[in-house]
From TrEMBL, chain A:
This is ABC transmembrane type-1 domain-containing protein. The lineage of its organism: Bacteria, Pseudomonadati, Pseudomonadota, Alphaproteobacteria, Hyphomicrobiales. GO terms for cellular component: plasma membrane. It is found in: Cell membrane. GO terms for biological process: transmembrane transport. It comes from Methylobacterium frigidaeris. It comes from the Bacteria.
TrEMBL record, chain B:
One of its GO terms (molecular function) is ATP hydrolysis activity. It is found in: Cell inner membrane. The lineage of its organism: Bacteria, Pseudomonadati, Pseudomonadota, Alphaproteobacteria, Hyphomicrobiales. Residues 9-259, 288-526 form the ABC transporter domain. This is Glutathione import ATP-binding protein GsiA. Belongs to the ABC transporter superfamily. It comes from Methylobacterium frigidaeris.
Length: 308, 547
């Protein structure tokens, strides 16, 4: 080997695994598979709630209030026929079926998780790119973010909710706002380090315009960390929604969410724990699954973290 | 092993297995050599030759995936490969010590230098605090560090790179080990600092009789310091012997090729280039201001009053040590940063102050090849996409640009079908060829090579330099060649500019600058070049090594 071979050296390894191979690699990680599997199950439960043997989650029945799990009641339909319905998780203090409420509640929790993650990533990404690449705007944006971070998330959320009428959009906005600064910081730090890379400078020398430069050379570096960050935001969004609803400033009680089911069960918790127990189990398992997914993604996407 | 005394280190038939999927089965195979007391043995080879693996296996610091499968390593008669981790820990520091390439990261930033050296004594001896301190101060003094008392209380960031490497050597030698392993200890240092560190290592080794195993890729350093030389290629020893013999009269073709690839320090006389003026700067300056609302403002003059003229077909080199401002000048001319003052005339236009919008149409005139071949290509894009990016920005159709890219790949000596591959599938030298093809695709008039061959092995370096020469003639390019390596500069540059602390201290035809350096700094640089007699004539090697 007196000289470097003029033609190609044998290929060292497969090209960067993106797309299909990446998905395959992710699913080989049992933590990712388990987390993703459980979330898929929850999504199905939420979507198929009407056909999973549920009643109208808002139907009040004063005759059967605060019944324990397993209580059976006879429902008389309008044509006079009767059926026996079993309240698997009991009923709440207004006689509503907890099982139905918990299943319908999955819709709200997952909807909030996904929309909060998507919105905070989108807004954070935009602000982070601007702060990281357009130097004069860096200071103002980051000081604003520092200001937001200085206020405890829950307090900020309460303040945001109080500005709007209570409802799903207000709750989502309330959870998104405190999450944005963390995303902005993450994106900005990536942009700051990547913009110094020689390949970015080479692209500048090649006359690539700023939007294309961002999309082609800088943005791809943020994808993996943002996916990971997104899962953690989703987990915290589910919790914060529960907290807000529990405090009575979240989703209005006519729409069941795990948080407001628990809020309503709070007064009689000592006597009828099932009102808090079942939504609590669903909430806990879902957050755990999201976190597992996030941890698994981080380990797989970030080679520096593997082997810990 | 003509030496009668027992060797400090004996490596016999060492073989270390590589995990599957590598380019070969064993990282090193059948490696045997010995280090006698008071002897400096240089293990020299290109990247991937297994020289560092050898050094780490002697220290017992091999990564877990690398397993010794045969042979033995005996330190003062004791086998390292079979020693327990506890025993190895005792041997390290006590009998052998290592200094690393990066003095910046090898010291703990939150402990004072004195504490870090004393730690070695605390672990390995039962000296009292006063004795320890006295011993450390004496050692710092022996390292020719100014004001040992102050050094003792300093934190690593307060020291220069050379001072840090001296501290590392002090920590390594304080227990008087029989063997010192030095893994590229001067590669990250400036040439004048390197000369001082090499001198220090030789002085310590002579005074204390330490055996030194010195890992390097640089034949200049070998010529400067080695008693014996071990040449490695792809995990095997191809040649070993006394320095004068291996350097002056190499037997193995690989050694011959390596030595021939080292650029000489004697520049050829080149006729002055009389092409049209491609680039001219006047009063070019870059000043960095730091500070803010609550901090005192600070100004750093990275470059000041730089005047450069480059003609078509001419190669002008800027040499200098780190912090001399040579890269700042290059980046200003490329307009990757905006100069603080001065003009940059390209043809009859001053581009120094143009906003990006008006600069973009002129971008294709000046192109850059960067230093780090592993970072200058976007790892997520095929090399084809990287090469055609510029031409497509300037309105070429992707098909036409790709056809041109295929031609250019052939021109830089790569297979055109490789356009569909990703950068990580290429070696460093191949990537540098791709980076050159990308620059040429823009049809530039001026090419800036910013340490473009510094990260490459000598044999690859020579090929890339030859390629630069070839494309220069083909496209009548003006080349601005930034380097810290005088040998490379001597080989390729028509004219030379020497920079120190942001200012030009000397410029002139290369041969002239080497033969009659005017500025004291230029003389110091030439003096400090390792093994500077090496490559001029084989007979002088011994003399240079003992100088």
């Amino acid at each position: 080997m007196s000289a470097e071979p003029t033609l190609l050296a044998p290929a060292v390894a497969a090209p960067l695994p993106l797309g299909r191979t990446l998905a395959a690699r992710l699913l080989r990680n049992p933590v990712v598979a388990l987390g993703a599997g459980f979330l898929l199950l929850m999504a199905l439960v939420g979507a198929l709630a009407p056909v999973l043997g549920t009643l109208d989650p808002t139907a009040i029945n004063p005759a059967t209030r605060n019944r324990p799990p397993g209580f059976e009641r006879t429902i008389r339909a309008e044509d006079g026929t009767t059926t026996t319905y079993r309240h698997r998780m009991g009923t709440d203090s207004l006689g509503r079926d907890v099982y139905s409420r918990v299943l319908y509640g999955a819709r709200i929790s997952l909807l909030i998780a996904v929309s909060v993650a998507a919105l905070s990533l989108a807004i954070g990404l935009l602000l982070g790119l601007v702060a990281g690449y357009i130097r004069p705007l860096d200071g103002p944006i980051m000081r604003l973010m520092d200001g937001l971070m200085a206020i405890p998330g829950i307090l900020l959320a309460i303040a945001v909710v109080s500005l709007f009428r209570a409802g799903l959009p207000a709750v989502i906005a309330a959870i998104v706002v405190p999450e944005i600064p963390r995303v902005v910081r993450l994106v900005r730090s990536i942009v700051l380090s990547v913009r110094e890379e020689p390949y970015v400078e080479a692209a500048i020398m090649a006359g690539t315009r700023l939007p294309l430069l961002m999309a082609r050379h800088i943005l791809p570096n943020t994808v993996a960390p943002l996916i990971v960050q997104g899962t953690f935001i989703a987990a915290s969004a589910i919790l914060v929604e529960a907290v807000l609803s529990f405090l009575g400033i979240g989703i209005p009680p006519e729409t069941p969410s795990w948080g407001n089911i628990m809020a309503e069960g709070r007064n009689l918790f000592r006597v009828y724990p099932h009102n808090i127990l079942y939504p609590g189990i669903f909430l806990g398992l879902t957050v755990l699954a999201v976190n597992m997914l996030g941890d698994g993604l981080r380990d797989t996407l970030d080679p520096k973290m593997t082997g810990r | 092993m003509s030496d009668a005394t027992a060797p400090v280190l004996e490596v016999e038939n060492l073989a270390i297995a590589l995990p599957g999927g590598g380019d070969r089965l064993r990282a090193v195979d059948g490696v045997s050599f010995a280090v006698a007391p008071g002897e400096i043995v240089c293990v020299v080879g290109e990247s991937g030759s297994g020289k560092s693996v050898t050094a780490f296996s002697v220290m017992g610091l091999l990564a877990k995936v690398l397993k010794p499968v045969a042979g033995s390593i005996r330190l003062l008669g004791e086998d390292i490969l079979t020693a327990s981790p506890q025993r190895l820990r005792a041997l390290r520091g006590d009998r052998m010590a290592m200094i690393f390439q990066e003095p910046m990261t090898a010291l703990n930033p939150v402990l004072t230098v004195g504490d870090q050296i004393e730690e070695v004594l605390r672990i390995h001896t039962d000296l009292g605090p006063k004795e320890r301190r006295a011993k450390v101060l004496a050692m710092l003094e022996a390292m020719h560090l100014p004001d040992p008392e102050r050094m003792h209380a300093s934190y690593p960031h307060q020291l220069s790179g050379g001072q840090r490497q001296r501290v590392m050597i002090a920590a390594a030698l304080i227990l008087d080990p029989a063997l010192l392993i030095a893994d590229e200890p001067t590669t990250a240092l400036d040439v004048t600092t390197q000369a001082q560190i090499l001198k220090l290592i030789r002085e310590m080794q002579e005074r204390r009789g330490t055996g030194v195993l010195f890992i390097t890729h640089d034949f200049g350093v070998v010529a400067e310091i080695a008693d014996r030389v071990v040449v490695m290629q792809r995990g095997r020893i191809v040649e070993q012997g006394p320095a004068a013999q291996v350097l002056g009269n190499p037997e193995h073709p690989y050694t011959k090729m390596l030595i021939a690839a080292v650029p000489t320090m004697t520049p050829a006389r080149r006729p002055p280039v009389t092409g049209a003026l491609a680039l001219e700067t006047a009063g070019l300056a870059k000043t960095y201001r730091s500070g803010g609302l609550f901090k005192k403002a600070r100004e750093v003059h990275a470059a000041a009053d730089v005047a450069i003229r480059i003609h078509r077909g001419e190669t002008v080199g800027i040499v200098g040590e780190s912090g001399s401002g040579k890269s700042t000048v290059a980046r200003c001319i490329a307009r990757l940063i905006a100069p603080s003052a001065g003009q940059i005339m390209v043809g009859d236009r001053d581009i120094a102050r143009l906003p990006e919008r008006r600069l973009r149409p002129l971008r294709r005139t000046i192109q850059v090849v960067f230093q780090d071949p592993f970072r200058s290509l976007n790892p997520r894009r095929t090399v084809g996409n990287s090469i055609i990016e510029g031409p497509v920005n300037f309105g070429a159709t992707p098909e036409a640009a790709t056809a041109r890219a295929r031609e250019l790949m052939g021109l830089v000596g790569l297979d055109p079908s490789a356009l569909a591959r990703y950068p990580h599938q290429f070696s460093g030298g191949q990537r540098q060829r791709i980076a050159l093809a990308r620059a040429l695709a823009m049809e530039p008039e001026i090419l800036i090579a910013d340490e473009a061959v510094s990260a490459l092995d000598v044999s690859v370096q020579r090929q890339v330099l030859a390629l630069l020469d070839d494309v220069q003639r083909r496209f009548d390019l003006a080349i601005l060649f930034i380097t810290h390596d005088l040998r490379v500069a001597a080989q390729i540059c028509d004219r030379l500019i020497v920079m120190q602390r942001g200012r030009i201290v000397e410029q002139g035809p290369t041969a002239e600058v080497f033969a009659r350096p005017d500025a004291a700094y230029t003389r110091a640089l030439i003096e400090a070049a390792p093994g500077r007699e090496f490559g001029r004539g084989a007979g002088q090697v011994q003399e240079a090594a003992s100088a």
